Prior knowledge:
It contains 7 helices and no strands. The protein has a single domain, classed as Up-down Bundle (Alpha-lytic protease prodomain-like). 86% of the residues lie in helices and 0% in strands. By secondary structure, it is an all-alpha fold.
Amino acid sequence: MTQPAVVVERDHGHDHDHGLIDRSILRSRAGIRAVSWSLAILTVTALAQAFIYSRTLSVALLADLIHNFGDALTAIPLGLAFFFRSLRGERLAGLAVVLAIFISAMVALVQTIERFIHPRTLTQLWLLALAGIIGFIGNEIAAQVRLRAGHRLQSPALVADGKHARVDGFVSLGVLASATLVGLGLPRADPIIGLIITLAILRITWESWQTISKTEPGEMLDHTD
């Protein structure tokens, strides 16, 4: 009578292991899908802003543009981590996200200081305003994709990237503010807003570092976003 019980127990264990493998594969695919969608969205956003920058030469837009390109590129190490189903790789990818955000802030700061020293007159302000709106919409869509997948997959790196994109959307509205203020006769508003955007990026860097350093991949995350 004991033999069937042993067989059932072994079968149950086998099914349990098989289920774990399946969940790992499903998590990997879902993570890659979320990262790929957000990469595509932010790449299109950055390309549209790059075209508008070539027409306006706004340093506020340049700061936002550099950051959006950097944000899009952070999807690559994160996508590789999901592809190889590596929690350690996912954590390292999260650190790469933080580093990329910090570097983009430094590049934006250099460009902003240069514009303070060598001011330029902005033209085609309506295009500049459009760039800010495009940046806001693109980042908010990417944020929704990353945050939902990050919470569902319990991925701190993906959640940090999602929060990063969400704040970036509001940073992009700074470009809209720059166009408005310059149009009202305040040309110095452009580098000033560029500086504000840079400071906002530095704040994002700190918050993302907090998320990555205090939470391990697979831990339950706060669902307030």
